[in-house]
Amino acid sequence: MADNILSVSQLNTYLKSVVDGLAPLRRVLIRGEVSNFVRYYKTGHVYLTLKDDKSAIKVVIFKRYADALRFPIENGMGLIVAGQATVYEKDGNCQIIGYDAMPDGAGTAHIRLKQLVDKLRAEGLFDEDRKKPLPRFPSVIGVITSRSGAALSDIRNTVRTRWPLAKLLLLPVMVQGERAPGEIRRAIRYFSGRQDVDALLISRGGGASEDLSAFNDEGVARAAAACPHPVISAVGHEIDVTVLDMVADARASTPTFGAMVATPDRAELAEQLQGYRTRLLNAQVALLQRCTVRLKMLKQRPALASADYTVKESTHRLDGLRRAMLTGMGERLAKEQKRLGTAAGKLDAMSPLKVLERGYTLVFDEKDALVPLSRDLTQGQTVTIRFADGSADGTITKVMTETEAT
User: What 8-state DSSP symbol labels residue 197?
Assistant: First the structure.
């Protein structure tokens, strides 16, 4: 028995040699969904797991083959890998050494959709700041949907119930199939050229995910983004998000909900109006009550209780003001009189007449100008001499200065 004991390494080596020696496993095509995708930038090798609903297997694509791939690999995409089945001796796991890969069916569509989403996002078509607000009370709503689908009936019934004042303008289109994207684009452009449209509702009912291709069309997305009216996307798929959903100004999960987004609810408005009416009446009653209480308080004041009291109080105030005014005027007059007396005394002390009373005289020339110095006189000049009690006229017979007099 001891001769049959193998080490783990021996067993894994044996399994690898067995698998590598099987011709059918040297070139296999494996289909599955990608998960655990990793590409190491230092080596350039790609590691991923391919899985289906029952099993999974690891895949390695070395750098020289990974560089040759013409599409990006992403988790969740369908992928067909060409490679060789082998056993990784280190852990004994079976894996695929891939040398080529290609998208698988729905995976190709997924890649194209992802590329379109990335492109439009980079251009800013999904930005919230470019989205237009919906009208509060729309008068005309453009509707783009199938004439025969249940979506149109749901929209009409909802609008009729919520906001019957709105007029619906239907432009019927195909909502799936090859013709659908072109018809939807033309319908959007038609409503874009109308000035009487307040909002645009693009809708379809439920269906399979593959039926959404018309609403993932780049032309439809760009037409919706360029529309001057607010656009509501009401495609009946709650889980799947279409490109139109991301471009539209508002998104609804069903046609019915789309009609609800587009219109106000008249019942809610009526309830709001009733609430406003009740609040207004309550405010009026409260104001009236406050005014009544205030009026009662005013009536209890002496000023309003007796008109005579008001007159007497006013007269008393006027008398007080008059007395205060007279007192102030008397004090001011006495003060000014005192100042005037002081100034008059100073002026009298400086008067020339006081000097004349002490025996001095003043000499004036013919022009009645004061002659202060003897040298200002000339012989034969007529002068007037002023005394304290009068004046005398004279003629200068001789002029002597102070030096000559001595």
Answer: -
Tell me the per-residue pLDDT of 171-218, one tens digit each, with 9 for 90 and over.
999 999 899 999 999 999 999 999 999 999 999 987 766 678 899 999
Which tokens hold the place of 401? 């200065």
Residue type for 29, please? Answer: L
44 in Cβ contact with 21 (< 8 Å): no
Query: If we measure between CA atoms, which residue out of 79, 221, 325, 108 comes closest to residue 235?
Result: 221
Kindly state the tokens that stand for 85.
């089945």
* Three-state SS letters, 132-189: CCCCCCCCEEEEEECCCCHHHHHHHHHHHHHCCCCEEEEEECCCCCCCHHHHHHHHHH
Q: Are 238 and 256 in contact (CB under 8 A)?
A: no
Phi/psi-derived region of residue 302, left when phi > 0, alpha when psi is between -120 and 50, beta in every other case: alpha
96-102: list long-range contacts, CB under 8 Å, 24+ apart: 96/28, 96/30, 96/50, 96/57, 96/58, 96/59, 96/60, 97/60, 97/61, 97/62, 98/46, 98/59, 98/60, 98/61, 98/65, 99/61, 99/65, 100/65, 100/68, 101/61, 101/69, 101/73
CB 262, CB 158: distance < 8 Å: no
The label of the residue with tokens 């007080």 reads 320
Helix axes 106-122, 218-226, angle to 10 degrees: 30
Cβ neighbour number for residue 265 with a 10 Å cutoff: 14
Q: In this model, does residue 355 exceed pLDDT 80? A: no
Distance CA 257, CA 154 (A): 9
Beta-carbon contacts of 306 under 8 Å, excluding residues fewer than 6 positions away, are none
3-state secondary structure of 365: coil
CA distance 143 to 153: 12
Q: Is 204 exposed, middle or buried (0-12, 13-18, 19+ CB in 10 A)?
A: buried
Task: For the sheet with 362-364, list strands across it.
Answer: 362-364, 382-386, 391-395
% of the chain residues with pLDDT over 90: 43
96 near 59, Cβ under 8 Å?
Answer: yes
Mean pLDDT, rounded, of the chain = 87
